[in-house]
Every structure is written in C-alpha cells, then in structure tokens.
C-alpha cells in the first residue's frame, strides 16, 4: 500500500510516497480501506515542524486525523461493526494512507445520506465544536458570539448552537459574511464592526486561526460573560468583568461525532483532490492560503 508523508520539515513539496505493508488490526481494532481524508491546518503545522517541540515524532511522519473508510478486516473482540461498513475515524495521525487500523472507540458509522467527501471534512472540527458547546452549557435562548465563524470549527459551532436554540452572533472577514448568512446565523458582522454586538452575548468563542481576533469576541460579551479561545491558550482577558479560558481538551470522539451528525452539520468542499502525492501537495498548498470557507479533501478513486 502507499502512505504519503515526509522525512524532513518544510514546504508542501516535502511530501512523497512511502510504500508499506497494510497494517493488521489488533484486538478491538478494525482495518480500514481509506476512501477520503480531510485536511486540517494542524497537518500543515505538523509539516512545517511547528509541533516538533510539543509533539516530537520520528520520521517518516504521515499526517491525517480525519478519515472515512470501509472496514476490510476485523480484529478479535470487535462488536458493533461488520466488514463493508463505511465509518468515520478520528485518529492522532497517519490518515494519509491507503489502509489504516483504528480502535472501535474511534469509529462512528457514516450515515448513508452523507457523501464520503463531506464526511471526511467533519471529525476534528465537529469534536472541537461539540466540546465548546458543552463547556459553555448555555440554556436555550441565550446568546453566543463566534469570532472566526467562517472557519471549520466556527461554522460547525454556529450550526450546533442554532440547533440548540441559541442566538448566534457571527463574526468573520467581510468577504465571508454571505457564507455566515447561509449558515443561518442570527446576526453577522465583520471584525471592524464587532462593536455593533457590544454587550449582547452571554458567552463568546474566539475560533480565529491563531487567536488574532483583535478583541472582537470579548467586545460582544455582557459583564460576567465567558470567553473561550480555541488556540490552546486563553486570551488575556481584555476586560476585568469577563471570564477567559481556553479549549484544552476534547470530548470523546464517538458521542461528540454522533451529536454533530444528529444536528446534520455540514461544510462545503472547496477542493476534492486525488489521493496521491500530487493531491497531497496541492492540498497543502491550499492550506497555506486564505481559501474560501470549507474543507479540502483527498478522495481515493
């Protein structure tokens, strides 16, 4: 089988094909033939070497956390899944492979009406969004503001919040406001006009890549409101009358993914690329740009 990875950090051209034997599932695992892989900004960060200090890995490194595949072999003691099932798999690494193994706790059945490419774009962002909503614990009718609402986590969070009957104030760059309207956000604004939402939100989320929302999310909060930042470290509270924390853990995959699927969350696919070295390189080149809202997916033919 083929895997696609790198043996040195660098630009997208460091990727190459890595031949390997298909992995054999252990007890409690299944083997998957990979049908599609969703690319995430973390994959590019891994490739650039930005995660090396906090997550040292041996070369070759094969990225990939979001996988949809067909079960092709069962390890001992596997129940609830059968050969031929199409499943979503969230994994720590290694998804850029023709075959992978996965523990059953990291699997969820792919709904029959959900396209494989669309499904591959959902795991990581859905788990993050569900975790945030659980952490906020807002009652129906409350108001949440989302900065970075056109990004993957932000867009799924908008959809989940609306499904939970929350009012959603969505913030993004000016060229993405139309997309926020299609998501059904209660009100939308660009960052320069975040003051239009000042003091309206019971809670706010800074889901901007790198956390650079320039205080937009905090501006929307009522006194005593909670600000959650997705970048791994809490923003210094820009106001003394609000709380500030970071998303530092994720809910368990299966229940979180099931929640997201039950809410029928979806993200547009902006690039459907071949599952090949060229496809991986092209996908990572797109990851380096400010691309349109949506996901980049590698699809096996």
How far the N terminus sits from the C terminus, by CA atoms, comes to: 14 Å
Shape: globular
Class from secondary-structure proportions? alpha/beta
Unreliable residue stretches: none
Q: What percent of residues are in strands?
A: 25-35%
List the domain count as a whole number: 2
Radius of gyration: 19 Å
What string, H for helix and E for strand, traces the elements in order? EEEHEEEEHHEHEHEEHEEHEHE
Query: Would you count the extended β strands for me?
Result: 15
Supply the CATH class of the largest domain.
Alpha Beta
Please estimate the helix content: 10-25%
The biggest sheet amounts to:
7 strands, mixed
Counted by DSSP, the helix tally is 8
Features:
alpha/beta, Quinone Oxidoreductase, Chain A, domain 1, Rossmann fold, 8 helices, ER, ADH-like_N
Detailed description of the structure:
This protein has two domains: 2-122 and 267-299, Medium-chain alcohol dehydrogenases, catalytic domain (Quinone Oxidoreductase, Chain A, domain 1, Alpha-Beta Complex); 125-246, NAD(P)-binding Rossmann-like Domain (Rossmann fold, 3-Layer(aba) Sandwich), CATH 3.40.50.720. Helices cover 24% and strands 29% of the residues. The chain has eight helices and 15 strands. The strands form three sheets. Strands 3, 4, 5, 6, 7, 14 and 15 form a seven-stranded mixed beta sheet that branches. The chain is globular. The protein starts with a strand and ends with a strand. Keywords: NADP, Oxidoreductase.
């Amino acid at each position: 089988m083929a895997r696609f990875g790198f043996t040195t950090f660098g630009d997208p051209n460091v990727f190459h094909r890595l031949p390997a034997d298909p992995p054999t599932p252990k007890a409690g695992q299944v083997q998957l033939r990979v049908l599609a892989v969703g690319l995430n900004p973390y994959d590019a960060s891994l490739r650039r070497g930005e995660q090396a200090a906090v997550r040292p890995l041996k070369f070759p490194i094969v990225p990939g956390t979001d996988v949809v595949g067909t079960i092709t072999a069962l390890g001992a003691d596997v129940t609830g899944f059968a050969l031929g099932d199409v499943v979503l798999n969230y994994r720590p690494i290694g998804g850029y492979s023709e075959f992978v193994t996965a523990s059953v706790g990291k699997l969820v059945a792919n709904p029959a009406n959900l396209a494989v490419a669309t499904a591959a774009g959902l795991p990581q962002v859905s788990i993050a969004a569900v975790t945030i909503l659980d952490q906020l614990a807002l009652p129906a009718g409350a108001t949440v503001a989302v900065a970075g609402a056109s990004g993957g986590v932000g867009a799924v969070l908008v959809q989940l919040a609306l499904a939970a009957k929350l009012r959603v104030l969505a913030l993004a760059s000016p060229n993405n406001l139309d997309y926020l309207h299609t998501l059904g956000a209660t009100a939308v604004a660009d960052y320069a006009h975040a003051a239009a939402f000042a003091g309206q939100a019971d809670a706010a989320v800074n889901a901007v890549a790198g956390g650079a929302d320039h205080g937009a999310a905090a501006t929307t909060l009522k006194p005593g409101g909670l600000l959650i930042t997705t970048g791994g470290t809490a923003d210094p509270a820009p106001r003394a009358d609000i709380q500030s924390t970071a998303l530092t853990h994720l809910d368990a995959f299966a229940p979180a993914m099931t929640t997201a699927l039950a809410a029928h969350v979806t993200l547009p696919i902006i690039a459907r690329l071949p599952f090949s070295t060229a496809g991986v390189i092209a996908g990572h080149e797109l990851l380096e740009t400010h691309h349109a809202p949506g996901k980049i997916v590698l699809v096996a033919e």
